[in-house]
Design goal:
Length: 417
């Protein structure tokens, strides 16, 4: 404890010498919540039973101890909350409804099927976000949902979207924290289509129908998520980036950027500032693509830092909903959550510790020498000392000590499942 405070005090001095207030950076960081994706806890399995994961996404690995019901999943996430600083949120997919053993199809889901999640979130004083589930269902088996050419199937999925908005609004009202509802559909073709237009016309029409009812933005916001390709939709994805960028601008919805949904050399960090020119809110799906949209655990890499810098330098934090989106079943699932969440926060902290005004001034003055020199020297500044202090102050384990708790939880709880 003493050495953490000492290191922090030294760091505070160093940062002060370049005009950065570390206490203020910590205060800012504390205000940012990261939405933990419930689906990391059970490999996107959900509680409907039986169905395999479809939609062109895949979890690999069979690490023991995955959650098999709501209570286990919630217990696991509480463990995560005890190891990650700050007030965070939980992101739920429709497939995690709790229907007391009754079969309730996706178009019939009601707020009451998420009562347990809401009661739990109330207890913890956290917010919830939501996602309709357009995969792992017999009516999505041929690869199309909201852009389906069969009107009956398309209507089923429209009804699902409408049901989910009611649920998301209920989250916002009950918890007093806005729920961001993210619409992602896997629709697309493995092979080259002849008509790329018609499915997009149908998708736009379905979205219009889902979003027809006005909902107070205090409670709920709608966001749409694009993708480049998936397994089985390599040649064509209906909901491409251009499709949703246009849709969001025209219909004033939020836009979701998933860091795994673009060409390998394309970066989300370079897109954020354009989005905010035309769109009010962004949902971020922080993920890590390795050669493809592989959803690896988020690490502290250059792109994560660039994204954090964009959010801070642009002043976009209060218009952004930050969520994690990856699923790794090859390591302890709780550790996977903790690593990704802590890295995301650490990247935000490092960005908050930049002398932004100074850097912007050098740039505006045309002093690009100073800009590069400062940016490079900053990499050696002691942000980890500030991070450690923040963890200590938030009563969560410092550095790798969180792993002790995870190992203990694995021995006491996970290994017995
Ligand atoms: C899939 C999208 C989507 C999902 C979750 C489970 O490529 O990223 O966000 O990962 O909805
Ligand atoms: Zn995503």
């Amino acid at each position: 404890m003493e050495s953490i405070v000492k290191s922090y005090e030294l760091a505070r001095e160093q940062y002060a010498s370049i005009g950065v207030d570390t206490d203020k950076a910590i205060e800012e960081l504390e205000k940012i919540s990261i939405s933990l994706h419930c689906w990391q806890g059970d490999d996107v399995g959900g509680f409907e039973g039986g169905t395999e994961l479809t939609g062109g996404i895949q979890t690999t690995g069979n690490y023991p101890g995955k959650a098999t019901n709501g209570d286990e999943l919630r217990a696991d996430m509480e463990k995560v909350f005890s190891l990650v600083p700050g007030k965070n949120k939980v992101n739920i997919h429709a497939l995690y409804a709790e229907t007391e053993g009754k079969k309730v199809d996706r178009d019939e889901l009601l707020p009451k099927h998420f009562e347990k999640w809401v009661a739990w979130a109330k207890d913890l004083g956290i917010g919830l976000d939501f996602n309709p589930t357009y995969f792992s269902h017999p009516l999505s088996d041929d690869g199309f949902t909201l852009s389906h050419s069969d009107e009956k199937i398309r209507q089923f999925w429209i009804d699902h979207g409408i049901a989910c908005r009611n649920i998301s609004e209920y989250f916002g009202k009950e918890l007093g924290i806005t729920s961001a509802m993210n619409i992602w559909v896997p629709d697309g073709y493995k092979d080259i289509p002849v008509d790329r237009y018609a499915p997009r016309v149908r998708l736009a029409d379905s979205l219009d129908k889902i979003l027809a009812r006005k909902i107070d933005k205090k409670y709920h916001i709608d966001s749409v998520e694009s993708k480049l390709f998936g397994i089985g939709s390599e040649s064509y994805v209906v909901g491409s980036h251009e499709f949703y960028m246009g849709y969001a601008v025209k219909n004033k919805t939020a836009l979701t950027f998933d860091t795994g949904h673009f060409h390998p050399t394309e970066t989300v960090s370079n897109k954020i500032s354009s989005l905010f020119l035309y769109i009010n809110n962004m949902v971020l799906h922080v993920s890590r693509p390795v050669r493809w949209d592989s959803d690896h655990v988020v690490i502290f890499d250059d792109e994560l830092q660039s994204i954090a810098q964009e959010l801070v330098r642009g002043g976009f934090l209060d218009r952004t909903f930050i969520a994690l989106d990856y699923f790794d079943a090859s390591i302890n699932r709780i550790a996977a959550w903790v690593i990704g969440a802590r890295n995301t926060q650490k990247a935000l902290l490092a960005a908050l510790l930049e002398p932004t005004a100074k850097l912007k001034k050098a740039e505006l003055d045309g002093d690009l020498t100073t800009r590069l020199a400062l940016l490079e020297e900053l990499k050696g500044y002691p942000y980890p000392a500030v991070w450690d202090y923040y963890c200590e102050k938030s009563s969560v384990p410092v550095r790798e000590k969180w792993l002790i708790d995870v190992k203990k939880y694995e021995a006491d709880v996970l290994s017995k499942r």
